[in-house]
Protein backbone atom coordinates (compact mmCIF):
# COMPACT_ATOMS: atom_id res chain seq x y z
CA UNK A 1 0.00 0.00 0.00
CA UNK A 2 1.06 3.62 -0.53
CA UNK A 3 1.99 6.01 2.26
CA UNK A 4 -1.24 8.03 2.09
CA UNK A 5 -3.40 4.91 1.97
CA UNK A 6 -1.67 3.46 5.04
CA UNK A 7 -2.17 6.69 6.98
CA UNK A 8 -5.84 6.76 5.96
CA UNK A 9 -6.31 3.20 7.27
CA UNK A 10 -4.60 4.12 10.54
CA UNK A 11 -6.73 7.25 11.07
CA UNK A 12 -9.88 5.23 10.33
CA UNK A 13 -8.73 2.64 12.90
CA UNK A 14 -8.15 5.16 15.71
CA UNK A 15 -11.42 6.92 14.89
CA UNK A 16 -13.51 3.74 15.05
CA UNK A 17 -11.61 1.62 17.60
CA UNK A 18 -10.25 4.27 19.95
CA UNK A 19 -13.17 6.70 19.85
CA UNK A 20 -10.85 9.71 19.77
CA UNK A 21 -12.22 13.25 19.58
CA UNK A 22 -12.29 15.15 16.26
CA UNK A 23 -9.59 17.50 17.58
CA UNK A 24 -7.26 14.60 18.45
CA UNK A 25 -7.86 13.01 15.06
CA UNK A 26 -7.08 16.34 13.39
CA UNK A 27 -3.83 16.57 15.38
CA UNK A 28 -2.78 13.06 14.28
CA UNK A 29 -3.62 14.00 10.70
CA UNK A 30 -1.46 17.16 10.80
CA UNK A 31 1.50 15.34 12.35
CA UNK A 32 1.40 12.45 9.90
CA UNK A 33 0.99 14.80 6.94
CA UNK A 34 4.37 16.33 7.88
CA UNK A 35 5.86 12.86 8.27
CA UNK A 36 4.61 11.63 4.88
CA UNK A 37 5.81 14.85 3.21
CA UNK A 38 9.30 14.25 4.63
CA UNK A 39 9.34 10.61 3.49
CA UNK A 40 8.28 11.63 -0.01
CA UNK A 41 11.11 14.19 -0.12
CA UNK A 42 13.49 11.38 0.83
CA UNK A 43 12.03 9.14 -1.90
CA UNK A 44 10.70 6.64 0.62
CA UNK A 45 7.79 4.96 -1.13
CA UNK A 46 6.52 2.59 1.59
CA UNK A 47 6.53 2.44 5.38
CA UNK A 48 8.23 -0.95 5.14
CA UNK A 49 11.30 0.94 3.85
CA UNK A 50 11.44 3.25 6.89
CA UNK A 51 14.32 2.63 9.28
CA UNK A 52 15.21 3.79 12.76
CA UNK A 53 17.60 6.27 11.10
CA UNK A 54 14.83 7.64 8.83
CA UNK A 55 12.70 8.64 11.82
CA UNK A 56 15.66 10.15 13.68
CA UNK A 57 16.49 12.23 10.59
CA UNK A 58 12.87 13.39 10.40
CA UNK A 59 12.96 14.52 14.04
CA UNK A 60 16.28 16.27 13.48
CA UNK A 61 14.76 18.12 10.51
CA UNK A 62 11.91 19.31 12.74
CA UNK A 63 14.38 20.40 15.40
CA UNK A 64 16.16 22.55 12.80
CA UNK A 65 12.78 24.24 12.25
CA UNK A 66 12.85 25.29 15.94
CA UNK A 67 10.00 22.99 16.94
CA UNK A 68 9.65 22.79 20.72
CA UNK A 69 10.41 19.62 22.67
CA UNK A 70 6.67 19.27 23.41
CA UNK A 71 5.81 19.47 19.70
CA UNK A 72 8.53 16.95 18.81
CA UNK A 73 7.26 14.57 21.48
CA UNK A 74 3.69 14.87 20.21
CA UNK A 75 4.71 14.25 16.59
CA UNK A 76 6.82 11.26 17.64
CA UNK A 77 3.79 9.84 19.49
CA UNK A 78 1.78 10.07 16.25
CA UNK A 79 4.59 8.40 14.27
CA UNK A 80 4.94 5.64 16.88
CA UNK A 81 1.20 4.99 16.89
CA UNK A 82 1.20 4.70 13.10
CA UNK A 83 4.16 2.30 12.96
CA UNK A 84 2.78 0.26 15.87
CA UNK A 85 -0.50 -0.14 13.99
CA UNK A 86 1.24 -1.14 10.74
CA UNK A 87 3.35 -3.73 12.57
CA UNK A 88 0.43 -5.22 14.52
CA UNK A 89 -1.64 -5.47 11.35
CA UNK A 90 1.35 -7.11 9.58
CA UNK A 91 1.63 -4.41 6.93
CA UNK A 92 5.30 -4.15 7.94
CA UNK A 93 7.67 -6.73 9.37
CA UNK A 94 9.12 -4.48 12.09
CA UNK A 95 8.47 -1.28 14.05
CA UNK A 96 11.38 1.14 13.45
CA UNK A 97 9.98 3.66 15.97
CA UNK A 98 10.00 1.36 19.01
CA UNK A 99 13.49 2.20 20.29
CA UNK A 100 13.46 5.96 19.67
CA UNK A 101 13.43 7.99 22.87
CA UNK A 102 11.05 10.91 23.28
CA UNK A 103 12.59 14.38 23.46
CA UNK A 104 12.63 15.64 27.04
CA UNK A 105 9.92 18.23 27.56
CA UNK A 106 10.62 21.35 29.55
CA UNK A 107 8.43 21.30 32.64
CA UNK A 108 6.26 24.36 32.13
CA UNK A 109 3.87 25.36 34.87
CA UNK A 110 0.36 26.12 33.59
CA UNK A 111 -0.83 29.73 33.45
CA UNK A 112 -3.73 30.59 35.71
CA UNK A 113 -5.65 33.63 36.94
CA UNK A 114 -5.66 34.82 40.53
CA UNK A 115 -8.95 34.63 42.44
CA UNK A 116 -9.33 38.43 42.05
CA UNK A 117 -8.78 38.20 38.29
CA UNK A 118 -11.40 35.45 38.03
CA UNK A 119 -13.87 37.59 39.99
CA UNK A 120 -13.19 40.47 37.60
CA UNK A 121 -13.67 38.25 34.56
CA UNK A 122 -16.94 36.84 35.89
CA UNK A 123 -18.52 40.20 36.64
CA UNK A 124 -21.81 40.26 34.75
CA UNK A 125 -21.88 43.10 32.24
CA UNK A 126 -24.89 43.72 30.04
CA UNK A 127 -23.33 45.08 26.86
CA UNK A 128 -25.16 44.58 23.57
CA UNK A 129 -27.65 41.71 23.28
CA UNK A 130 -29.00 40.56 26.64
CA UNK A 131 -29.45 36.91 25.51
CA UNK A 132 -25.82 36.84 24.32
CA UNK A 133 -24.55 38.30 27.60
CA UNK A 134 -26.58 35.80 29.61
CA UNK A 135 -25.03 33.03 27.50
CA UNK A 136 -21.49 34.41 27.86
CA UNK A 137 -21.80 34.77 31.63
CA UNK A 138 -23.22 31.25 31.92
CA UNK A 139 -20.36 29.78 29.89
CA UNK A 140 -17.64 31.57 31.85
CA UNK A 141 -19.20 30.72 35.21
CA UNK A 142 -19.59 27.11 34.12
CA UNK A 143 -16.04 26.78 32.80
CA UNK A 144 -14.52 28.09 36.03
CA UNK A 145 -16.95 26.14 38.24
CA UNK A 146 -16.33 22.82 36.53
CA UNK A 147 -12.84 22.90 34.97
CA UNK A 148 -14.20 21.65 31.64
CA UNK A 149 -12.11 21.58 28.48
CA UNK A 150 -13.49 24.09 25.98
CA UNK A 151 -14.53 21.27 23.61
CA UNK A 152 -16.46 19.65 26.47
CA UNK A 153 -18.16 22.99 27.13
CA UNK A 154 -19.24 23.60 23.54
CA UNK A 155 -20.43 20.00 23.08
CA UNK A 156 -22.63 20.01 26.21
CA UNK A 157 -26.25 19.09 25.55
CA UNK A 158 -29.34 20.10 27.51
CA UNK A 159 -29.83 16.68 29.03
CA UNK A 160 -26.23 16.70 30.33
CA UNK A 161 -27.15 19.49 32.79
CA UNK A 162 -28.90 18.54 36.03
CA UNK A 163 -29.52 21.85 37.78
CA UNK A 164 -31.79 20.48 40.52
CA UNK A 165 -29.16 17.90 41.50
CA UNK A 166 -26.25 20.31 41.00
CA UNK A 167 -24.08 18.36 38.56
CA UNK A 168 -23.06 17.97 34.90
CA UNK A 169 -22.63 14.77 32.91
CA UNK A 170 -19.55 15.35 30.78
CA UNK A 171 -18.34 13.30 27.81
CA UNK A 172 -14.56 13.76 27.81
CA UNK A 173 -11.59 12.41 25.87
CA UNK A 174 -12.05 8.93 24.46
CA UNK A 175 -15.83 9.23 25.05
CA UNK A 176 -15.26 8.71 28.78
CA UNK A 177 -18.10 9.98 30.92
CA UNK A 178 -17.64 11.75 34.24
CA UNK A 179 -19.85 13.59 36.72
CA UNK A 180 -18.78 17.13 37.66
CA UNK A 181 -20.43 19.17 40.45
CA UNK A 182 -21.94 22.58 39.72
CA UNK A 183 -21.46 25.58 41.99
CA UNK A 184 -24.32 27.85 43.04
CA UNK A 185 -23.13 30.80 40.93
CA UNK A 186 -22.82 28.65 37.80
CA UNK A 187 -26.29 27.16 38.44
CA UNK A 188 -27.74 30.65 38.83
CA UNK A 189 -26.11 31.88 35.60
CA UNK A 190 -27.24 28.76 33.70
CA UNK A 191 -30.81 29.16 34.95
CA UNK A 192 -30.90 32.79 33.78
CA UNK A 193 -29.55 31.79 30.35
CA UNK A 194 -32.03 28.92 29.94
CA UNK A 195 -34.99 31.05 31.05
CA UNK A 196 -34.20 34.29 29.21
CA UNK A 197 -31.45 33.69 26.64
CA UNK A 198 -31.29 30.36 24.85
CA UNK A 199 -34.80 30.32 23.40
CA UNK A 200 -34.36 33.80 21.90
CA UNK A 201 -31.03 32.78 20.33
CA UNK A 202 -32.44 29.55 18.88
CA UNK A 203 -34.84 31.51 16.63
CA UNK A 204 -37.31 28.61 16.49
CA UNK A 205 -34.57 26.12 15.59
CA UNK A 206 -34.43 22.89 17.55
CA UNK A 207 -31.35 20.92 18.62
CA UNK A 208 -29.85 19.48 21.78
CA UNK A 209 -26.78 21.71 22.22
CA UNK A 210 -26.78 23.89 25.34
CA UNK A 211 -24.83 26.88 24.02
CA UNK A 212 -25.74 28.45 20.68
CA UNK A 213 -24.51 31.43 18.65
CA UNK A 214 -26.57 34.41 17.47
CA UNK A 215 -27.70 32.38 14.44
CA UNK A 216 -29.14 29.72 16.73
CA UNK A 217 -26.48 27.18 15.75
CA UNK A 218 -24.13 25.29 18.12
CA UNK A 219 -21.32 27.51 19.37
CA UNK A 220 -17.81 26.54 18.20
CA UNK A 221 -14.52 26.49 20.12
CA UNK A 222 -13.33 29.42 18.03
CA UNK A 223 -16.53 31.31 18.84
CA UNK A 224 -15.97 30.85 22.56
CA UNK A 225 -12.32 31.96 22.24
CA UNK A 226 -13.53 35.27 20.72
CA UNK A 227 -16.05 35.71 23.55
CA UNK A 228 -13.35 35.16 26.17
CA UNK A 229 -11.02 37.74 24.59
CA UNK A 230 -13.86 40.25 24.35
CA UNK A 231 -14.82 39.78 28.01
CA UNK A 232 -11.19 40.15 29.12
CA UNK A 233 -10.99 43.42 27.18
CA UNK A 234 -14.22 44.67 28.76
CA UNK A 235 -12.90 44.19 32.30
CA UNK A 236 -9.31 45.33 31.52
CA UNK A 237 -7.47 42.05 32.07
CA UNK A 238 -4.41 42.59 29.92
CA UNK A 239 -2.49 39.37 30.50
CA UNK A 240 -2.48 36.74 27.76
CA UNK A 241 -4.62 33.70 28.53
CA UNK A 242 -6.78 31.10 26.82
CA UNK A 243 -9.92 29.06 27.63
CA UNK A 244 -7.60 26.44 29.14
CA UNK A 245 -6.37 29.06 31.64
CA UNK A 246 -9.75 28.91 33.39
CA UNK A 247 -9.38 25.12 33.65
CA UNK A 248 -5.92 25.62 35.18
CA UNK A 249 -7.35 28.26 37.54
CA UNK A 250 -10.13 25.89 38.62
CA UNK A 251 -7.63 23.17 39.57
CA UNK A 252 -5.10 25.51 41.20
CA UNK A 253 -7.68 27.29 43.35
CA UNK A 254 -9.20 23.99 44.50
CA UNK A 255 -5.82 22.67 45.64
CA UNK A 256 -4.90 25.98 47.27
CA UNK A 257 -8.07 25.73 49.32
CA UNK A 258 -7.45 22.18 50.53
CA UNK A 259 -8.99 19.87 47.90
CA UNK A 260 -7.33 16.47 47.60
CA UNK A 261 -5.47 15.60 44.41
CA UNK A 262 -7.57 12.51 43.59
CA UNK A 263 -10.83 14.49 43.64
CA UNK A 264 -9.34 17.17 41.38
CA UNK A 265 -8.14 14.42 39.02
CA UNK A 266 -11.69 13.03 38.81
CA UNK A 267 -13.22 16.44 38.14
CA UNK A 268 -10.67 17.28 35.43
CA UNK A 269 -11.08 13.88 33.78
CA UNK A 270 -7.36 13.06 33.84
CA UNK A 271 -6.66 9.38 33.16
CA UNK A 272 -3.36 9.54 35.08
CA UNK A 273 -2.89 11.37 38.39
CA UNK A 274 0.62 12.39 37.31
CA UNK A 275 -1.06 14.84 34.88
CA UNK A 276 -2.90 16.45 37.79
CA UNK A 277 0.24 16.63 39.94
CA UNK A 278 1.56 19.58 37.90
CA UNK A 279 -0.88 21.73 39.89
CA UNK A 280 0.84 20.82 43.15
CA UNK A 281 4.00 22.39 41.69
CA UNK A 282 1.99 25.53 40.96
CA UNK A 283 0.67 25.78 44.50
CA UNK A 284 4.11 25.10 46.01
CA UNK A 285 5.69 27.77 43.80
CA UNK A 286 2.98 30.24 44.79
CA UNK A 287 3.42 29.37 48.48
CA UNK A 288 7.14 30.09 48.21
CA UNK A 289 6.47 33.45 46.50
CA UNK A 290 4.05 34.44 49.26
CA UNK A 291 6.59 33.41 51.94
CA UNK A 292 9.43 35.37 50.36
CA UNK A 293 7.23 38.43 49.93
CA UNK A 294 5.67 38.50 53.40
CA UNK A 295 7.94 36.78 55.94
CA UNK A 296 10.13 39.38 57.74
CA UNK A 297 13.19 37.10 57.79
CA UNK A 298 12.76 35.44 54.41
Automatic annotation (TrEMBL):
It is found in: Cytoplasm. GO terms for cellular component: cytoplasm. Gene3D superfamilies: 1.10.150.130, Intergrase catalytic core. PROSITE patterns: CB, TYR_RECOMBINASE. Residues 108-292 form the Tyr recombinase domain. It holds the Pfam family Phage_integrase. Forms a cyclic heterotetrameric complex composed of two molecules of XerC and two molecules of XerD. Belongs to the 'phage' integrase family. XerD subfamily. This is Tyrosine recombinase XerD.
Amino acid sequence: MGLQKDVHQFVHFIKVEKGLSPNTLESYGRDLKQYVHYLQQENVEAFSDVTHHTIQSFLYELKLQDKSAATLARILTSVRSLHGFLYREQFTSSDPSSLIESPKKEKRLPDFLSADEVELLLQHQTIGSVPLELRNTAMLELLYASGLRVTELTSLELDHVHLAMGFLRVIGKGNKERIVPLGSQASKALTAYLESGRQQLLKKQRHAYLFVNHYGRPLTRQGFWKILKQRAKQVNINKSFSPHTLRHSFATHLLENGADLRSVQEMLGHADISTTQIYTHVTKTRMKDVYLKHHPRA
